[in-house]
Write a structure and sequence with these properties.
This protein is about 50% helix and about 20% strand. It is built from eleven helices and nine strands. α5 packs across α8 (about 240-245), α5 crosses α9 (about 250-260) and α8 (about 240-245) crosses α9 (about 250-260). The two termini are about 30 Å apart. It holds the Pfam family GILT.
Length: about 300
């Protein structure tokens, strides 16, 4: 089915490209296409070849060709180019056509690959996890389930994860800044801000920020997390990340996570809180992999491992 689609798309793409060529060269191109490719390019005509005739200023011998209308039997000399300049122009036209076709088909194949790797072979399961840095259950869930399961299913492109680090905290605007309080005290706020800064640095790429989250979760304070989770990661600019975590940017990101948490209905009453495809899920907390696999239709090979 894919092959048929590609061939059909090729015909459409190339036909559209041919139609876009200048009208002045239409006769050259149509007749040359008939001579070169025959079949449907001849538009109810056939080709007759007679004795050779001098062409290209006598430097090249070409067969004399007639285009014969199948209905009227009328014979018309093929309008072949008689100058090297004409051949050069046609070569340029067909080269441009070829490039157009290849570029468009390249985009087509890239699009098909995306579809095949995600939607065509199954649905995408989405998980939202609401956590906080010094919550024991959040730490265990992140380290033992969330990161390992996401890593396992990442290549399927059928598992989307979004982590909101805020928990049972609160943030209040103060001038152009925020003042935040966290369930386990200021040290947790520092770690929450650190996690939000890492997430922001990685542009919410879960494959990159989740292993760092798994490291930061449960650490006693910012210095400990900095030494073991940030300084040891060559991708993370230590000074930039710590400046974010201890400054206004970090408090802003934490407050932003708070606004997302505040939109939950019903409100958050326990941490971690998990949503699976938009629905609150207790099963996902106890066995995330099983809950995700139960949602995937059809199930990928990873579910059987």
């Amino acid at each position: 089915m894919l092959t048929v689609s590609v061939v059909f798309a090729s015909v459409l793409i190339c036909s559209q490209a041919i139609d876009s060529l200048e009208t002045a060269n239409a006769q050259h191109l149509n007749e040359l296409s008939c001579i070169l490719f025959g079949g449907e390019f001849c538009n109810n005509r056939t080709i007759e070849t007679t004795a050779t005739s001098d062409n290209l200023a006598g430097k090249v011998k070409l067969p004399k060709m007639l285009l014969v209308d199948r209905t009227t039997k009328k014979r018309v000399p093929a309008h072949l180019p008689n100058k090297i300049h004409d051949f050069k122009n046609i070569f340029i036209k067909f080269s441009g056509l070829l490039v157009k076709c290849l570029l468009t088909l390249g985009n087509f194949f890239q699009s098909k690959h995306f579809i095949r790797s995600s939607r065509e072979y199954g649905n995408v399961v989405r998980v939202e996890a609401y956590v906080e840095a010094q919550c024991g259950d959040s730490t265990r869930f992140t380290r033992r389930q969330l990161w390992p399961v996401y890593e396992k299913f990442a290549k399927t492109k059928r598992f989307d994860v979004s982590v909101i680090v805020f928990g049972k905290a609160s943030c209040q605007p103060v001038a152009d800044d925020y003042s935040c309080r966290c369930q386990h005290g200021q040290r947790e706020c520092d770690l929450n801000q650190l996690m939000n800064c890492v997430q922001d640095f990685y542009n919410n790429d879960a494959l990159k920020y989740l292993p760092v989250f798994a490291c930061i979760q449960g650490k006693t304070d910012l210095d400990y997390a900095k030494d073991y989770c940030i300084a040891t990661n060559p991708e993370l600019p230590l000074e930039t990340i710590i400046k974010c975590a201890t400054g206004r940017r970090g408090r802003f990101l934490l407050a932003l996570a708070g606004k997302k948490t505040a939109k939950l209905d019903p409100p958050l009453n326990n941490v971690p809180l998990l949503y699976l495809d938009g629905e609150k899920s207790i099963d996902a907390f106890y066995n995330l992999e099983e809950a995700v696999c139960n949602k995937m239709q059809p199930k990928p090979a990873e579910c059987a491992k």
